[in-house]
């Protein structure tokens, strides 16, 4: 079995993958913290032969996790942000400072689409661009939905956005405080992503497919004006591409990869951007 770990600032997500069939056997998530307990927090390591890790937690958390795993597992692979990988050139002036989850998303998106806009809707919302040919432009970071709620001193309890809500409903003025908060932060998030996407495509002269991942991807996707796909395992896809351990992975297949969305034409993107600038 292969254990994939995506250690975030808030949640640490894991999945167990069959090394022979490449099938996902189980998955889960726990709160990121100092000490992990195999068998309760993550699967029993007796069945694991290799681990792949993407971590944006404090270095001490990663070091302790790797130390624990090395004592139990034969192969431990830790992803790092590098100047270049898999045909993509990192757009950061200091490549190691790019969050490794963003780097994994960019690499997965490039392997799938040959250029894309990768949006991760987590504690923060990150928007990264990689052009056909592999030039990563860098990206944008804006507060995530929950972080925006916390900034209003309302916390997150009882103000969660229903991921099945219709975008039209979420864009209407709220008639209760809970609705006003939810609709306001939703409008802020989707408006920012839509504008960022249009501005960059216009400036670079290319229409890119958009791929969304992260805990709030489903609800954010409802407000996207451009064709897009939700890929919950996009970070795991980057791990698979960087450390292919199964026959399917070595053949370039990433688990759960969606069909690449056909982007709108560049002229349509530019027309929409021009209209929005008039408002």
UniProtKB/TrEMBL annotation:
Main location group: cytoplasm
Requisite cofactors: K(+); NH4(+)
Enzyme Commission (EC) number: 2.7.1.33
Pathway(s): Cofactor biosynthesis; coenzyme A biosynthesis; CoA from (R)-pantothenate: step 1/5
GO MF: ATP binding; metal ion binding; pantothenate kinase activity
Source taxon at top rank: Bacteria
Residues that hold K(+) according to the record: 120
Pfam families per UniProt: Pan_kinase
Keywords, alphabetical: ATP-binding, Coenzyme A biosynthesis, Cytoplasm, Kinase, Metal-binding, Nucleotide-binding, Potassium, Transferase
Intracellular or extracellular location(s): Cytoplasm
Binding site for substrate: 92, 99-102, 177
GO CC annotations, alphabetized: cytoplasm
Cofactor note: A monovalent cation. Ammonium or potassium.
Catalytic activity: (R)-pantothenate + ATP = (R)-4'-phosphopantothenate + ADP + H(+)
Binding residue positions for ATP: 6-13, 123
Biological-process GO terms, alphabetical: coenzyme A biosynthetic process
Active site positions, chain numbering: 101 (proton acceptor)
Family statement: Belongs to the type III pantothenate kinase family.
NCBIfam families in UniProt: baf
Subunit structure and binding partners: Homodimer.
Function: Catalyzes the phosphorylation of pantothenate (Pan), the first step in CoA biosynthesis.
Protein name, per record: Type III pantothenate kinase
Organism: Halomonas chromatireducens
């Amino acid at each position: 079995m292969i254990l994939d770990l995506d250690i975030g600032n808030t949640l640490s997500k894991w999945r167990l993958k069959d090394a022979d069939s490449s099938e996902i056997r189980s998955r889960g998530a726990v709160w990121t913290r100092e000490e992990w307990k195999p068998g309760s927090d993550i699967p029993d390591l007796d069945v694991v032969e290799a681990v792949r890790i993407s971590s944006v937690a404090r270095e001490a958390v990663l070091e302790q996790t790797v130390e624990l795993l090395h004592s139990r597992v034969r192969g431990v692979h830790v992803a790092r942000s590098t100047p270049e990988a898999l045909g993509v050139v990192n757009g950061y002036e200091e490549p190691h400072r790019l969050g490794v989850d963003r780097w994994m998303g960019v690499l997965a998106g490039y392997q799938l689409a040959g250029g894309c806009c990768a949006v991760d809707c987590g504690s923060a919302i990150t928007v990264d661009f990689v052009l056909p040919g592999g030039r990563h432009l860098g990206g944008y970071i804006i507060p995530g939905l929950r972080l925006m709620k916390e900034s209003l001193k309302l916390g997150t309890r009882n103000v969660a956005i229903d991921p099945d809500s219709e975008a039209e409903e979420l864009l209407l003025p709220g008639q209760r405080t809970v609705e006003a908060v939810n609709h306001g932060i939703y409008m802020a998030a989707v408006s920012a992503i839509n504008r960022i996407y249009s501005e960059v495509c216009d400036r670079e002269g290319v229409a890119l497919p958009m791929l969304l991942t992260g805990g709030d991807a489903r609800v954010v996707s409802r407000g996207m004006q451009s064709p897009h796909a939700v890929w919950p395992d996009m970070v795991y896809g980057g791990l698979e591409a960087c450390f292919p351990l199964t026959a399917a992975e070595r053949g370039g297949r990433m688990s759960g990869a969606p069909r690449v969305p056909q982007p709108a034409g560049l002229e349509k993107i530019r027309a929409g951007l021009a209209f929005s600038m008039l408002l």
